[in-house]
Design a protein that fits this description.
This protein is α/β, with parallel strands linked by helices. It is about 55% helix and about 10% strand. Strands 1-3-2-4-5 form a 5-stranded mixed sheet, sandwiched between helices. Helix 9 packs across helix 10, helix 10 runs antiparallel to helix 11 and helix 11 runs parallel beside helix 13. The longest helix is centred in the N-terminal third of the chain and has 23 residues. The radius of gyration is 22 Å and the shape is globular.
Length: about 325
Amino acid sequence: MQPRNMSMSGVVDLAAVKAAGEARQKAEQARAAATKDGGAGGGGAVAPSSLVIDVDEAGFERDVLQRSAEVPVVIDFWAEWCEPCKQLGPLLERLAVQYNGRFLLAKVDVDANQMLMQQFGIQGIPAVFAVVAGQALPLFQGAAPEAQIRETLDQLIQVAEERFGLTGIAVDPEAGVGAGAGAAEPAEVPAGPYDALLEAAARALDANDFGGAVQAYKNVLVDDPGNIEAKLGLAQAELLARVQDLDPQQVRKAAAENLSDVAAQLAAADLDLVGGHVEDAFGRLVETVRRTAGDDRDAARVRLLELFEVIGGDDPRVASARAALARVLF
């Protein structure tokens, strides 16, 4: 899900950037005024349904460029005839609501907005971009697994907050809900319990049956994709399966002698992590992402995300590496 090498020249002109900057100042003033007044009544809060908007060429500056001064705007370029778009679109719409105002989703029908498609240099759809404070960023092209999309959104949100001070927009969950309006869907109750499957997976790990452990954890995640224990166990089992037949001396020699050998860098990072050198593993992969492109860059980025799962998102070393990854991606 790495950004493609798309040409961004001419996408946002100086006048639009200036307009976005002015809009950002107004948005900050409005937020400050709402905070001073106690924020009662939502202070301009929007309904969850307003987090997904259809955008055309005529409204692009207003709905995307100027809105990007207060919240990251993710643009989904799609078409009715595009089958992958039908998979990706609903997923992005659901995530927009779940992220609760941290980003706004703008949907652009390329058949009706050819000029925008040309300006963004899009070669195929679905294609997903972001606009932050008037600046356009390519995110990914084609359908992608939800976990990878979430990682990219998290990085985008982090960059928007750290570099531009954009913390999103307030959402009122009650807005728009009433007679004839669809109430928010109730939260899904996790399926389970999965004690027997998780115990079987742990036994397989203890017996070095990594294939069996991987399958057992996947069986849990099929019904309960958010199961933390299964996600962590799966990441660990897959890591151990990758390193079990490696020759550490040969791997490290290959990685040191050829920095452009991405496979060697991935293997060395795996060994670093198993050996307890977490920062070294993360740093190696961030650097590999920085100096590569295309499929090689994607492979390094995905492996880094997999190693994040092994350590756990709450670990400060993961937070630091996420920030470093965001800097090289954006």
